[in-house]
Specification:
single chain; alpha/beta; Rossmann fold; five-stranded parallel β-sheet; 8 helices; 11% strand
Length: 211
């Protein structure tokens, strides 16, 4: 095994319901990494957003961007290895872009948002490894229903499909180290063998001889 870096910064990306939080916990436990999760329950805009996306889209995205930027700066100051549920890049590449394309965020707001993001991202470090969880919409819907968050009950299939398309476009352009995990036929939460497959893929990408 190749020598490990003193600190590893891993991030997990993926659509709503792809299993990011679960895999963050499982990999953190396996590798001894500190775990950091997307702020959801204390988000003051999320419930309103799903009820009226046009009215609350800009507010929601600014909240996410501000919160994640503060979070990200703290993570970069840490000396221990860590794994993060969702990245700041997904805010602009996926969610804000989708809202703009759907006409749910005005040109003015979107331009302002992107300008702010571009100023912020210059101060951030890219993950040593980005793990992208790829899942088809039926898998996403099933897992969203299983976790039973009330504010997610109004998410439309068309919305998830649009997000998936944007994720695929973004990940194809993402130039830093990445690992794509197709999750439709994996159950890494309940099946130890499936979890072992994912762990092996991560180990190979981080520490293997042939990256």
């Amino acid at each position: 095994m190749a020598a490990q870096k003193q600190k590893q910064y891993i991030a997990i990306a993926g659509n709503i319901g792809a299993g990011k939080s679960s895999l963050t916990s499982l990999l953190g436990k396996n590798f001894g990494w500190k775990t950091y999760f997307e702020s959801v329950e204390d988000n003051p805009y999320l419930s309103d957003f799903y009820e009226d996306m046009r009215r609350w889209s800009f507010n929601l995205q600014i909240y996410f961007l501000s919160s994640r930027f503060r979070h990200q700066k703290k993570l970069m100051e840490m000396e221990s290895s860590l794994i993060q549920d969702r990245t700041i890049y997904e805010d602009v590449e996926i969610f804000a872009k989708n809202l703009h394309e759907m006409g749910l965020m005005s040109d003015r707001d979107y331009k302002n948002y992107c300008a702010l993001f571009n100023e912020m991202v210059a101060y951030l470090q890219a993950p040593d490894l980005l793990i992208y969880l790829r899942a088809e919409v039926p898998t996403l819907v099933r897992q969203i229903q299983q976790r039973g968050r009330d504010y997610e009950n109004t998410i439309r299939i068309e919305y998830l499909e649009r997000l998936n398309s944007l994720y695929e476009d973004w990940i194809s352009r993402y130039d830093n180290e990445k690992l794509i995990v197709d999750t439709d036929n994996l159950d890494f939460v309940n099946d130890d063998e499936d979890l072992g497959k994912v762990i092996s893929m991560v180990e190979q990408r981080l520490y293997g001889l042939f990256n």
